[in-house]
Design goal:
globular; 10-stranded mixed sheet; 10 strands; 6 helices
């Protein structure tokens, strides 16, 4: 029997609603636990003590994923599609393996990533939409009250580039540095649906949700455009808006050097329009049309 150790990378989509985030926790349901359990059942109980699955991003409780990437090591040799079909047969319907492939040992799902992309899906409506329960955040403005998306877009420009993002950082954040670089922060609107599209080298704990909550203060007219610039410069978390709901947050894509040949996520299986996601995260900058 071939016992050569292999590294397998997998692409994962999940509905984060029933889970306490990605990372394994004692007596809590997590995505990592379900995937490790599925691998164990697929290739044998004897690996349970040593099996570890490393993900690109440790999403929080209730956060969803369209393009999560993870890896694990095994001495079991299976065709790529066998991994997909086999693992999915042991996973709940809220988690799905989209692809699998053997990669070199210099690939690490977390450390090899040079960029991460998130999208926040917001419903700007005074009425709940039951079919989007836990799939979107809500801004329940009265119908007669204006929603100032152009002002939010102006405020978002202050956040582009390299900054100290302490004002958007959770007190539980374990990042060694609050300095991150946001490459893209677009806001797209489709009727009552608003999409915040963010791309950065890395994100702090709760950073996206804190940014969304802060920009919404501008959008509903409670704060000025310049207020966002001021709180960024003050580097004080207490000055920014409270952390917004996790319901509408999706890890959309993780980017790796081309030599690893990591497949792109399938955006066609999402409540967020595929066109918006592809234009934001899969097209060259000069071809993007975000409206």
């Amino acid at each position: 029997m071939d016992k050569k150790l292999r590294r397998i990378a997998i692409g994962i989509q999940y509905d984060g609603t029933p889970y306490c985030g990605w990372q394994s926790q004692i007596k809590q349901a997590t995505v990592q636990d379900h995937i490790e359990d599925a691998i164990t059942k697929f290739i044998g109980d004897d690996v349970k003590k040593i099996l570890r699955v490393t993900a690109a991003g440790r999403t929080d409780t209730g956060v969803h994923a369209l393009g999560q990437v993870a890896h694990f090591d095994t001495d079991i040799d299976r065709p790529d599609w066998s991994w997909v079909r086999g693992l999915n047969s042991f996973l709940p319907f809220t988690i799905s393996i989209q692809w699998a492939k053997e990669v070199s040992f210099d690939f690490d799902a977390r450390r090899s990533a040079y960029e991460r992309s998130y999208v926040y899906f917001l419903m700007n409506s005074p009425i709940r939409t039951p079919l989007l329960h836990h799939k979107a955040g809500y801004n329940m403005l009265p119908l007669a009250k204006p929603f100032m998306i152009d002002e939010m877009r102006l405020a978002a420009q202050f956040l582009l580039g390299e900054h100290d993002f302490t004002c958007f950082r959770s007190s539980e954040c374990q990042s060694l540095s609050p300095i991150k670089t946001i490459h893209q922060l677009d806001i797209a609107q489709d009727g009552s649906r608003v999409f915040f599209l963010l791309r950065a080298n890395a994100f702090l704990h709760h950073m996206v949700r804190n940014i969304v909550g802060t920009l919404l203060q501008v959008g509903i007219g409670k704060k000025s455009v310049d207020w966002v610039k001021e709180i960024l410069q003050q580097r004080d978390r207490s000055l920014a808006a409270p952390t917004f709901s996790a319901d509408g947050l999706y890890l959309a894509k993780v980017s790796y050097p081309e030599n690893f040949q990591i497949p792109a996520p399938d955006f066609g299986q999402s409540v967020i329009p595929e066109l918006i996601l592809n234009q934001a995260f899969c097209q060259p900058l000069q071809e993007r049309v975000i409206s």
